[in-house]
């Protein structure tokens, strides 16, 4: 999973508007239990995407799951 984070972070460094890379990195962070980083990435996806796009809604669902988790 660390390789995935490195690869996705590299994609983001190349293109800071790569919403899909933020989304996938957020999912990896969530899988690793890093709630804060995952939430930050899902929020970034929502900033980059129009509200009508499926990726926006997917990020919102993931964010809601994380917010519902115990700290």
Plain-language structure description:
The chain has 71 residues and is mostly helical. Helix 1 (2-14) runs antiparallel to helix 2 (19-32) and helix 2 packs antiparallel against helix 3 (35-48). The longest helix is centred in the C-terminal third of the chain and has 15 residues, at 54-68. It has 4 helices and no strands. The protein has helices spanning 2-14, 19-32, 35-48, 54-68.
Give me some keywords for this one.
71 residues; mainly alpha; 4 helices; 79% helix; flat
Strand content: under 5%
Mean pLDDT: 96
Radius of gyration: 11 Å
Helix-and-strand structural type: mainly alpha
Query: Uncertain runs with pLDDT below 50, 5 residues or more?
Result: none
- Give the biggest beta sheet: none
> Helices and strands, in N-to-C order?
HHHH
Short recap of the structure:
With 71 residues, this protein is an all-alpha fold. The chain has helices at residues 2-14, 19-32, 35-48, 54-68.
Describe the SSE topology.
Elements lengths: L1 H13 L4 H14 L2 H14 L5 H15 L3
Helix pairs in contact: 1-2, 2-3, 2-4, 3-4
